[in-house]
Amino acid sequence: MSCMTESFVQKAARAQQVLLSLVMETLRGTDLCFPQLLNSSCRKPTRPHFETMLIYILLSFIALLTAALNLLVIISISHFKQLHTPTNLLILSLAVSDFFVGLLMFFQIMLIDGCWFLGDLMCTLYQYLAYVIASASVGTMVLVSVDRYVAICHPLHYSSEITQKKVQRFVVVAVW
């Protein structure tokens, strides 16, 4: 019986070696994100160099433009007192959330290569922040639409219903 068990163990070890050598042979021809882990599920996409550089430049330009122009809106509304109206406070909230969207795009640009190199904690943090910022942006757009609805459909009640204090409370509680 022990001879039979020994033979089975040897065959299993040989099968494992053959399988490992097949996996290694398959992985040698591909470009992996983490080759030391022997994980073939994380392969880098193969794109032409020109296409990759064009995507990097285009997305970097869009992210930079998004962040810079929203920062300009934030500074303008914050600096000038005459722009402190309920509608402009909603625009300010939207500009802040879109500014952060522009900053988060830089992390998205890193994913062009198909690999996330910043670890599990940063991946979780990135996903959480992306969810919160996108939700804040959508929530602010909903408040802007409610503000415009009241301004158009009930213009005589607008100034009494939509005050700066109410907008501040709604933005802080409902959006952020």
UniProtKB/TrEMBL annotation:
Biological source species: Sparus aurata
Segments crossing the lipid bilayer: 53-77, 89-119, 125-146
Keywords, in A-Z order: Cell membrane, G-protein coupled receptor, Membrane, Receptor, Transducer, Transmembrane, Transmembrane helix
Keyword Cell division (UniProt): no
Pfam families: 7tm_1 (PF00001)
PROSITE patterns xrefs: G_PROTEIN_RECEP_F1_1, G_PROTEIN_RECEP_F1_2
Protein's name according to its UniProt entry: Trace amine-associated receptor 1-like
Gene: LOC115587618
UniProt membrane topology term: Multi-pass membrane protein
G-protein coupled receptors family 1 profile domain segment(s): 69-176
